[in-house]
Fold each of these.
Amino acid sequence: MKITSGKYKYRNIEVPAGIRPTTEKVREAIFSMIMQWLPDAEVLDLFAGSGAMGIEALSRGAARCTFVESNRQNQRVLTANIANCGAGSEAVVIGRDYAAALDEISGRREKPVFDIVILDPPYEKTDYYVTAITRLQEYGLVDKRSIVVCEHLYDNKLSDTYGNLSKFKEKKYGSIGVDLFLVDNHESI
């Protein structure tokens, strides 16, 4: 698998055994939809796996990405992928469960507000979306400038709203669904 565009274009990304990476076609589609959020963005790749989504964001102009991955083997592959792309100075890896990582991030003295949040948990873990989106809002990690990108099985429909976040775009790519959420009262794109 390769990074599809930007300064790390064509760099190889290793995929840990047992995970389902976002395909190049779906990554291209997602990033074409969120281009306006990318320049100098603070990105959170909450279920990072190989890190392909977060590295793609960095490659396309994001300033920093926080990668969250709880599996130690996946962390090793993720860290190697970041190093292979030369993105170490732009990346932070948190080796914890997503909920514990959000708790940790929210407790920082200089707590970030993420411009882009990528949620792509294991597809069978549908409750992870609700928990993650709820905590992102409760902890003030997203605001009216933020976009939340959710990848899921298309047949496992996500809600149209989660707290102050509303779905403004829904796309289907084969069996994969991609939903984009913004804070209410934000103009649709």
Note: The CA atoms of residues 152 and 161 lie 16 Å apart.
Amino acid sequence: MPKPCLIDLLREPAKAAGVAESDWNDIVIQATNAQLLGPLAAAIERAGVADCVPPAVRQHLALATLTSGKRREAALWEVAAIRRAIDPDIPVVVLKGCAYAACEDLNAAGRVFSDIDILVPPALLERAEGKLIGAGFNPSQVSAYDQRYYREWMHEVPPMEHVRRHTSVDLHHAINPPVSRVHVPTARLMAGLVATAPGVFVLGPVDRVMHCALHLVQEGDAQKLLRDLYDLHLLVQQHFGNEALLAGLWRRADELGVLHLVRPAQQAAAALFSVDVQSQKSPRGWLARSLVAAARWPRPVFAAPLAEFALLAHSHWIKMPLGLLVPHLLRKAWLGLRGKEKAEA
């Protein structure tokens, strides 16, 4: 019988009761590397088998849970401070990890995140940025080229960090780049906002799930892929738990022109984490298969690196047209080579 791995326990956390003590070391390492130790602790707690876990492992899980809770409290406090700093007529929409925490989504339990992602309407971006600078958030010092890259091609301004608290804030005007092949206009998202506090909003459930799927595909970040797919699985399980509800997600993704990205992401998440045998079958389509191969553990020896490269290349292709992408990548490669030459000198 193969040893249980992290994905096995996230799929069926009740199985944690039967894991041999000698197998826990690898699982804890896998979970830590994937930023999933806290979510694993939450899943085991929900399954009611926490007392069956060896004491030494319970200490790791308890620390991850405590860390997650403290970071959540700090992040929500910071969001309240940001809300006070920005003019009250500007809606403050929190995204991604902070949004999950703000509305207490199922995947927020145990999850950690380092940045606070804020979305404001594009027409109000300059005012919001000015207010944050006045409140002590310093913009990152980047080159003139990178300033143009962020402000003309990307969906956010350069990252900002508070001068005293060192909180990092990513101020967005959209959920993906305006030059993207699949750009989602911010105005299309504003009608469905849900308030979590006075003047603080999150995307509606369908847009929150859609954004989670779109983000993991367009980022192409293999290190966070397993965590992001688990996020997606829990969100779909919570908000779209049957085929009729799931059809609503497909309609919304189709309306926004991202169904061809959202559906493969959901299929990959289901293949990894669903208890339904039919869903666990290898999904169709290269994108869903690549997501599974890049995230699966134990890693497929040859398939995983190829899948990671394909996902990274695809993410670049989505975000920028070739006329911008090729010169941008050549510039990055040249600067990387020069930096390596200087380091070796």
Note: The CA atoms of residues 219 and 341 lie 28 Å apart.
Amino acid sequence: MRLAATCCVGFLLILPRSAICQTLDYTPITPEQRVNWIVDGTVGPLSLLVVGPLGAAWQTAFNQPEEWGRTWSGAGKRYLQREADVAISNTLEAGVGALWGEEPRYVRMGHGSIGARARWAIKTAFVTQRRDGRLHPAWGRYVGNTVNNVIENAWLPPSATTAGQTITRSALGFATRIGGNAWEEFWPDAARLLHR
């Protein structure tokens, strides 16, 4: 966990100061919206019917973890593992982030060049708005994305509980956050083009 936190802090050091201090037109999240974000991210249709099955299929294809095999039973275990992962991670992120008023949701840039918007999607995996609308390190996300992987070692098979695997899962958590941010940034525009 210390290494993951060091990597996150190291990433922040290479961000330009404007990346951490940028202000957006932002309305802070309410406690009710925070709970809804946890629930929707865990058992919402996108999570249950799209991301969960795709994640389980991907891990089954690569047989990760290998103890679960390339079977329907193994795919089911991977799907349930992913649901537990999201529930723990989201709850920790939203709960710990509430201490500082951190925004767990992705806030779209919605304008500018594709490159600027892609950089925003990457950057906001590591920083987030607080109540003042300014960007700060996403401490709740760091906790949610690292502590949940340590907790999961209690039920994962041995090949997935090494220090290296735990750190890899934490890194993949940030990579998938970047992918989710990019989806939320660009999909509304793509959907509008497809409807024309």
Note: Residues 2-195 form one domain.
